[in-house]
C-alpha cells in the first residue's frame, strides 16, 4: 500500500484528484491547508505529495523548502502559474514535477505513477548514517563497522523507519506493512517487542534511544542525525 498526500484548497479539484488516484494499492489523504498537511506528515509516511502552491495559510513553495531536509519522497506541484520563472522556482525549491491547471486527470495519473516508480528505484542500496551502515539488499547491517545480526522482522521495521527517517510512522501502519500476510491477527505487542530488540542491538543506551524514538500515542520514528 502506497500513501499519497494531496494539499489542495479547491474542494472540487481535490476530490476529483483523489478519486482519480485512489486504488487498491493507493491510499489518499486530502488536506485543504498547510496546517492540515503538516499534521498529516507528522503522523504518517507518504510516498508522494501533490502540493498546490497558493494556499489560504501560506505558500506551497515555502512549505516545500521547509519539509525537504527530512522528506525524501516525491513532490508534484499543482498551480495555475505557468510562467517559466515559476516553474524553475518550483523545481529549484525541491519539486520533482510541476503540473499547471487545468490538467488532464489521465496525464496526472501517468506522472504520479512515473514519480512513484522513480522513488522506488531511487532508494539507496546502502544507507550510511551516524556510524551505521545498512545494506538491505545484502542483509548486512553494521554499527561502527561491527556486524549486527537482525531478524527478518527487525530488518523490515528498520527499513521502514530509516527510509522514512524524520517522519512519525503509526503503529497500525507498521504492523500492516511488516506482517503483510496476517496483520489482522498480530497483537500490537509484537511490534513493541520488535522495537525493543532492535534498540538493544543498535542503540548505545536502549533505555534512552537516540535514533529509534517513540512518539507517544502515535508510533515510532528514526530521528534524523
Keywords:
225 residues; alpha/beta; 8 helices; elongated
Q: Would you kindly provide a written description of the structure presented here, covering whatever features stand out?
A:
The model has no long low-confidence stretch (mean pLDDT 86). It is elongated, with a radius of gyration of 19 Å. β9 and β10 (140-143) form a beta hairpin. It starts with a strand and ends with a strand. The chain contains 8 helices and 14 strands. It has 225 residues and is α/β, with parallel strands linked by helices. α1 (11-21) crosses α5 (105-121) and α6 (152-163) crosses α8 (189-202). The chain has helices spanning 11-21, 34-43, 60-67, 84-92, 105-121, 152-163, 171-178, 189-202; strands at 2-7, 26-31, 48-52, 54-55, 58-59, 74-79, 97-100, 126-129, 132-135, 140-143, 146-148, 169-170, 212-215, 219-222. The strands form 4 sheets. A 5-stranded parallel sheet has the order 2-1-3-6-7, with helices on both faces. A 4-stranded antiparallel sheet has the order 8-9-10-11, with no helix packed on it.
Amino acid at each position: 500500500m502506497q500513501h499519497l498526500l494531496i494539499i489542495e484548497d479547491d474542494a472540487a479539484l481535490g476530490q476529483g484528484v483523489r478519486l482519480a488516484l485512489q486504488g487498491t494499492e493507493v491510499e489518499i489523504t486530502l488536506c485543504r491547508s498547510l496546517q492540515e498537511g503538516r499534521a498529516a506528515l507528522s503522523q504518517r509516511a507518504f510516498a508522494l505529495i501533490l502540493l498546490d502552491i497558493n494556499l489560504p495559510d501560506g505558500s506551497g513553495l515555502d512549505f516545500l523548502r521547509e519539509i525537504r531536509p527530512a522528506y525524501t519522497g516525491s513532490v508534484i506541484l499543482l498551480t495555475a502559474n505557468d510562467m517559466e520563472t515559476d516553474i524553475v522556482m518550483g523545481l529549484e525549491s525541491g519539486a520533482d514535477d510541476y503540473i499547471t491547471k487545468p490538467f488532464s486527470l489521465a496525464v496526472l495519473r501517468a506522472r504520479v505513477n512515473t514519480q512513484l516508480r522513480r522513488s522506488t528505484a531511487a532508494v539507496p542500496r546502502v544507507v550510511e548514517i551516524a556510524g551505521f551502515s545498512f545494506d538491505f539488499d545484502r542483509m548486512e547491517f553494521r554499527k561502527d563497522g561491527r556486524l549486527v545480526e537482525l531478524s527478518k522482522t527487525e530488518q523490515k521495521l528498520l527499513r521502514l523507519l530509516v527510509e522514512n527517517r524524520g517522519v512519525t510512522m503509526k503503529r497500525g501502519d507498521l504492523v500492516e506493512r511488516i506482517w503483510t500476510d496476517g496483520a489482522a491477527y498480530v497483537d500490537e505487542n509484537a511490534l513493541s517487542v520488535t522495537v525493543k530488540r532492535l534498540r538493544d542491538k543498535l542503540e548505545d543506551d536502549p533505555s534512552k534511544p537516540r535514533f529509534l524514538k517513540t512518539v507517544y500515542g502515535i508510533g515510532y520514528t528514526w530521528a534524523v542525525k
